[in-house]
Amino acid sequence: MTKEGLFFQISPCAGEISGHRAKWTREKQMVRFLWAILFLAAPLLVVPALTVEWEGEFGEALERIDAYHYVDDNEVVAALLEDQLSRVWEGPQRGEILWRKARSLVAVADLSLWQETMEKDEASALYDEAHSYAEMAAEFFPDHAQTHFWLAATAGRRAQLRGIFNSLFQASTVRDYLVDALERDPELAEGYYVLGQVYRELPGWPISFGSNDGAVSLGRRAIDLYEEQRAAGLVPVRYFDHYIDLATSLWTRNNSVRKRERRQNRMAEAYRTAETVLERGLAYEGIVSLKEQNDREEALEIIRWVIGELSAVESPRVRQRMDLAVARERLSSWE
Question: Which keywords belong to this entry (predicted)?
Fold first, then answer.
């Protein structure tokens, strides 16, 4: 694992808008799943738009929105989005603005809940509004992976906060939205990341489709994709929560060295014969290089690395503080 810096720099001259300066058992398993999405998946808030490129003023506007979003400047993001929503009324371009509006509302609710600066009723209303924007985005731009991803994210958050995520149907709905997203963009790392949580937290056959092997494979796929995209300059941050989540899946699976080897051989064959993006994601561990260690040894190695990296950040952002707190909690419960 490489250890480069965490955040890119944004030029302050890009921060002016509208005359002001912009500043840069089953039920329990269901609840665990959505709790994981709500608090472990904070960088769902910073999903990069990798599938579509727009040129000209509109493309520059999207880049500015995304740049401010990466550094959690939600007030500026909201102002920029409202400006674009008043300008763009039709077609895929409006869909681009609408899914970003959904993302923005989720960001505000998620971070405010973690900081305990927002009541649950208020957050629930924001998640409802975010889901409505995601639905509209899917109508304007049905072929965009992000619109389906944010349908999944907002549906999951709404259900968890209301305490109604107590049926396999709800979990299947989230999964199906995510599969729709990955079918449109097989390199959408966030899709694999959240799917990994779904497969880890749900019961397995014959009750449901949960799978610890699948969860680990999907987690590895998410990390590998993000690191590739980060190395290519497409993603300006490192997603430490992805590493925390993979460590959690490894700790939960708890395979010995020998069992890891046997399982990997089976998954290699499954990957070779896979026909869908989901099947390849579930069998991805079959084609990666593994150290000769058991699952929990790898989990501890990952979580200690995360803590070391985030502890060294001099002025951590809210998201980094959140990841560090989760990592320390994991380590405390595992040692």
Answer: Membrane, Transmembrane, Transmembrane helix
CB of 48 within 8 A of CB of 234? Answer: yes
Q: How far is CA 173 from CA 123, 151, 212, 267, 269, in A?
A: 21, 10, 20, 26, 29
139 class by beta-carbon count within 10 Å (0-12 exposed, 13-18 middle, 19+ buried): exposed
Helices (H) and strands (E) in the chain, counts: 14, 2
- For residue 35, what are its two tokens? 């709790």
Q: Is residue 45 part of a domain?
A: yes
With respect to residue 237, please indicate whether it lies within any of the assigned structural domains: no
Whether residue 280 lies inside any domain: the answer is: no
| Residue 41 near residue 111 (C-beta atoms within 8 A) | no
Q: Is residue 290 part of a domain?
A: no
Return the SS3 of 21.
Answer: strand
DSSP letter at 38 equals H
DSSP state at residue 116: T
pLDDT tens digit string along 172-225? Answer: 889 999 999 999 999 999 999 999 998 998 888 888 899 999 999 999 999 999
- The model's pTM is 0.81
Which uninterrupted H or E stretch holds 20? strand 20-21
Give residue 166's domain range. Answer: 21-187
Task: Give the count of domains, the chain.
Answer: 1
- Here the CATH number for the domain that contains residue 30 is 1.25.40
**Coil, helix or strand for 5?**
coil
d(CA 109, CA 166): 22
